[in-house]
Each structure stands twice: as C-alpha cells, then as structure tokens.
Design brief:
By secondary structure, the protein is α/β, with parallel strands linked by helices. The chain contains 23 helices and 20 strands. Strand 10 and strand 11 form a beta hairpin. Helix 6 (124-133) packs antiparallel against helix 7.
Length: 623
C-alpha cells in the first residue's frame, strides 16, 4: 500500500454534498470493462456498480481476475476498453497484495506519518487500530526489521487509520490469526454507518465473507456475477443457479450441495437474509446426509488404529531462551488422550506452542517431563507449510508422480484411482503433463495434501492447510477430508475450515491445553479477557479469573441455568430460521411487511446474543 498514492487520490471532501446526498447514492461504477493480458482475456464487457452501504466480497478461482478487478476499480490500472466512474469527492484507499513499504521506513511513520502524538493518541479510531493490529510490534523499528506478517499488519494499520469513503482490500486476512480476523471484521462493521461507505474485499476466508458482506461478486469466465448476501447466501443462490441451468457439471453441483447442507446445519451466525425464494434450493438438500458419517468413520479408524493413538500425560516441554539461555517452559502439565477417529482443531496465538504440541504427537519433539505413549499401529503424516513433500519430485510430471502410487484407493466408500482423486481436488487432465515445479501455488498445495493422503496415514496433522487455495478448492479439500478414516488434527487461522472439518476445538494458551466446548467463539471471548486484563492491569479481573469453583446450591443453580440457556438458544435459533423463511417468501415490494419481519428477526437475534453470552459465562464457571 502506498501512502503517496492514497494522498494523491484522496481529494477534498465537499461537506455540502455530504449533507444532501442520498443515503443509498451511487459511489462508483464500471461500464463495459475489458481487460486482457498477452495470453488471455481477463474481463470482457463487465458492467458493475457500488452503492453507499454496500460491502462486497469478491470470490472466484485463483487467476480469474479478482485482484485485477480491484486494481481497475481503484484506478491502479486502466482498462483496455470501457470506463470506471467515481462520484465527485469520493476518497479511495487500497490494501494491495504487494508489499510496497520501503525497508528503511519506521513503523510509527508508516502508520501515523508526521501527525503529532497528542493528535493521533487522542483519536479513538487510531487507538483501536493500533491495539487491534500492531500490539507487540516495536513502534521505532524499521520495516526491514519486521517479519512478513508484521509488515502486512503495519500496511493494513496504515490504511485503516485513514478516513476513506471506499476501501479496497486484497486478501486482508493473510497473516492474521483468528483473533485478528475477528477484530478486523468488527472494525469494518462499525467503521461506517449501515448506509454509508463502501467496501470491496477479495478474500478466501469464508467466515469473514459471511460476517461482513452484504453482497458477493463471483469472478468467472471473464464476467462478474453478483449475488445477494454473504458466503452462505451465495452458496444457496449458486446451487439454485446450477439447478435451473441444468448444468452438466454434476461433480461441482454435488460438491456445492454438500457445502450448502453444511451451511444449513452450521452456526446461527451464518443465517444470512437473502431476499429471494429459496424453496428450490432447500429441496436440493432435503435428503442430503451430514458431511461426515461419524459412526462409520470412527469404526474404520478403530480398525486402522486400534484403541491407542497418542497419549500425552502431564507433559511439559522446555526450550532454552534465545536471549538468556535459561530454560523457558512452552507447555506445562498437558494431558491429551487422543482417540481413534478424533477430529480436533487447535487454536492459539503465534508462539503459543501449537507446533510444539503437534511435534509431541508426531514424535519430532521430546517431552522435558511427563509421559508420551504411542500406539503400535499409528502412522503419522504432517502437511507442512513448506511443501517439503514435493522436493524429490520437483522435476517430475504429475502423471509420472501418480504412476508411482497404488492403482486404486477407497475414498468415501468408493474405489478410485489416483487420477480420479486428483480430479476431485480440482486438477484437469491437461495438467497431468505439467511438471510439479511449474504448478501454481494452489495446485502444489493440493498435490501435496493428496500425496500425503495416498500414503495412507491413520493420523493426519494439517498445519495451516488453506494457503494459496480459493473458496472452491477449499470446499473440494474439505470434501476429501470428510472421507478420511483416521485421526485428524488441524491448526489453522481459517475459522470456517476449523468449524467445518473438526468436531471439537482446543486452545493452547499460557502453556496449557484447554478444551473449548463453546468453540471458536469461546476462544475469542477468552482471548479478549486476557487482552483486556493485560491492557488495564486490572486487579478485579485477575481476582475474578482466579475465583474458586462453585459448590453446593450455587453449583446446582448454575447447572440448571446452563441447561435452560442451552434450550433457549435452540428455540431462538429455530424461531430465527422460521422468520428468515418468511422473509424469503414475503412479497419483496411490501416494504412495511418486510420491516415488521426484519424487526422480529432483530429482536430474536438480540435475545440470542445475550443468551449465548450468559451461556459462555456459565460454561466458564462450571469448567
């Protein structure tokens, strides 16, 4: 992101225009856009627009033109034909994928420029951005001293402290952990009022898309297809589109139906409100089974693994501190009895000890104290971020790599060849003749995972498996993992993936390993409490965190209230789903009726939020 470019395009705001402008005024438009590179046409005759209050998520396959679209709309590049128009006085800010901040630039200057400290320190928006993104990054360091993730956070912070009418964000969640992504979503939701500002974001993070977007644009086959709502609504409409068009690509339709069935069974937060009839889409998934046959997979896992996988009992791990040389404890007194067929997601900030914990499971890390017991039949495989598994086949063609595998495998109860499995994760027959080193980043990632699965491990560890994958390919990988009959352990900052492929979540925090019955939401609540306590050094919060367990009548009352809260959450979820259906079926021209239904949903959702918050509090007390 270039500050000079932003300042050049900022312009002076016309306050009188701001007062009289229509709250849903048009901000930016593209007419008959055509863009081509020497080898292909990227966009052809594309007409699209952005109105005040719209938050657009851009999805599509890698290489289909998502980043090019952002650069066209923001004025970074010019189209070969057509034009982009912007309302007078509109200010634009953009986060590009490229790192444009010079190495000798000081962090403080990159973010706040020459503004005096009293000015930016008194700005609540600036303080919020600094706390949310750059806490722990030295204020007087130069960009050249930072890691890639830290540089990305500084670039994003430098953009967000500015005052922009439209933000263009290209993969803003890269290098952010679950906590950082949740903060960014909340920041963008409260940055403008509901009818002001505009956002266009390219991201593969499906939870993020669902959390913030009012609309979705799919870039494919040189066009842009608009959909109403976030990721869940986009999947609903896409399944209906494919059904109505009687598409011949049956594999893709089946995969999307499976994805839709997951979304319908997912968390209440995903119940977005698309204003279209969804009956036909629901018919498609009426008899769709759950994504995984849990009982069958557990039985198969028991056959492959026996009763014992890996047991960690009262395990601690110490490393020498880099600065002092003295022992530093990374994990303390951890007990984890891993079951056959267990599917666990592991959360934690960078440096918390997640990799150390997985190293204990795989055998690459030795315990300083405690006991590690390994089953006799376990075969552990780890998908790393470094593509190390492809080193020996870098010069080989994909077809030759597959020839070295077994002729058939069982996946999802069906017998399949390695080539069929490769097609299942998005490879085309033409790519079989490509050398491994010439594959794209996403193709290498998919081949890496497939080769690991073809080696038939019974314990699979995935360390940030979503890198370089678009949303369609993530769905394909998840589909493949659904049929994995073994123990699956996943570390990822992709909240959607964690919730999609695992059945339970744990957190590595302060050297301990903690179960999260409330899932990712509970983890974020815990982290917020830790951050607040650290920031304020509050004695009260410390005392509350250390308060003794409940007992006697107090315990029984808390258990009763906890059970009642669970029942109330289930009932409210049903009521919200019912009103959503009524909204979808209601006459869309009856604004008064739609307003009544919308108010009804908002009342239910407000009650649900309060109930869920109390449920988490009780869960903490009872744990």
């Amino acid at each position: 992101m270039s500050r000079g470019w932003q300042e050049q395009h900022a312009g002076k705001r016309d306050e009188s225009e701001r007062v009289v402008s229509n709250p849903v005024a048009h901000m930016l438009g593209a007419e008959s856009l055509h863009l081509e590179y020497p080898t292909r046409v990227v966009l052809d005759s594309v007409t699209i627009g952005l109105d005040e209050g719209q938050r657009i998520g851009v999805v599509g396959r890698n290489g289909d033109g998502k980043s090019s679209l952002l650069r066209l709309l923001s004025g970074r590049i010019e189209p070969d034909a057509g034009r982009v128009t912007r309302r007078n006085g509109v200010t634009l800010g953009m986060l590009d994928q490229a790192d444009e901040l010079p190495d000798d630039l000081v962090v403080s200057h990159a973010i706040v420029g020459d503004r005096p400290e009293y000015e930016w320190a008194g700005d609540s928006k600036v303080r919020d951005v600094l706390e949310g993104l750059v806490g722990g990054i030295p204020w007087d360091a130069t960009m050249g001293e930072l890691s890639g993730g830290q540089r990305r956070r500084v670039a994003l912070a430098a953009l967000l402290v500015g005052d922009w009418d439209i933000l263009f964000l290209d993969e803003p969640t890269n290098h952010l952990d679950v906590e950082g992504i949740a903060w960014l979503a909340q920041h963008l939701k409260r940055r403008w009022s509901a009818t002001a500002g505009g956002l266009i974001v390219v991201t593969h993070d499906r939870w993020f898309l669902d959390e913030i977007c009012t609309d979705t644009w799919e870039v494919h086959d040189r066009i842009i297809e608009p959909f109403e709502g976030g990721y869940a609504a986009y999947i609903l409409q896409r399944v209906e589109r494919d059904r109505m068009a009687a598409a011949s690509e049956s594999k893709r339709q089946n995969l999307m139906r499976k994805e839709l069935a997951w979304l319908r069974r997912g968390a209440p937060a995903r119940s977005t409100k698309p204003k279209f009839r969804m009956d036909a889409a629901y018919e498609l998934i009426e008899n769709e089974p759950p994504p995984r046959d849990t009982v069958s997979l557990a039985s198969m896992a028991m056959q492959r693994l026996g009763k014992d996988v890996v047991d960690l009992e009262n395990v601690s791990v110490e490393y020498p501190d880099a600065s002092t040389g003295l022992p530093r404890e990374v994990l303390h007194d951890v007990t984890w009895l891993i079951a056959p067929g267990e599917r666990t997601g592991i959360l934690g900030v960078n440096g918390a000890g997640k990799s150390t914990l997985l190293g204990l499971v795989s055998g690459t890390v030795k315990a300083t104290s405690g006991k590690v017991k390994r089953g006799k039949t376990i075969k552990v495989a780890t998908l790393t971020q470094q593509l190390a598994e492809l080193g020996d086949i870098w010069e080989d063609r994909v077809s030759d790599v597959l020839k070295n595998q077994k002729s058939t495998y069982i996946a999802g109860g069906k017998e399949m060849t390695p080539t069929q499995l490769l097609e299942r994760v998005g490879f085309q027959s033409a790519q079989l003749s490509t050398r491994v080193k010439e594959l794209s980043g996403g193709q290498k990632r998919r081949l890496q995972l497939l080769l690991i699965i073809l080696d038939e491990p019974n314990v699979l560890i995935l360390d940030e498996p979503t890198n370089d994958l678009d949303t369609d390919m993530l769905a394909a990988i998840e589909d493949l993992l659904d049929s994995f009959a073994g123990t699956l352990l996943v570390v990822s900052h992709d909240r959607y993936l964690i919730e999609r492929v695992t059945d339970q979540q744990y957190a590595v925090t302060d050297g301990h390993f903690r179960h999260l019955p409330g899932g990712v939401e509970q983890y974020l609540t815990l982290r917020k409490g830790i951050t607040d306590a650290s920031a304020s050094n509050s004695v009260t919060k410390t005392a509350t965190a250390a308060k003794p367990k409940l007992g006697g009548a107090e315990l029984r009352n808390a258990q009763k209230e906890f059970a009642a809260a669970e029942r109330k959450i289930a009932k409210l979820t049903e009521q919200i789903a019912g009103v959503h259906l009524r909204l979808a079926e209601h006459d869309q021209s009856d604004y008064a009726g739609l307003g009544v239904l919308t108010a009804e949903v908002q009342a239910f959702e407000s009650t649900l939020a309060t109930t869920e918050e109390r449920w988490l509090e009780l869960s903490e007390l009872l744990n």
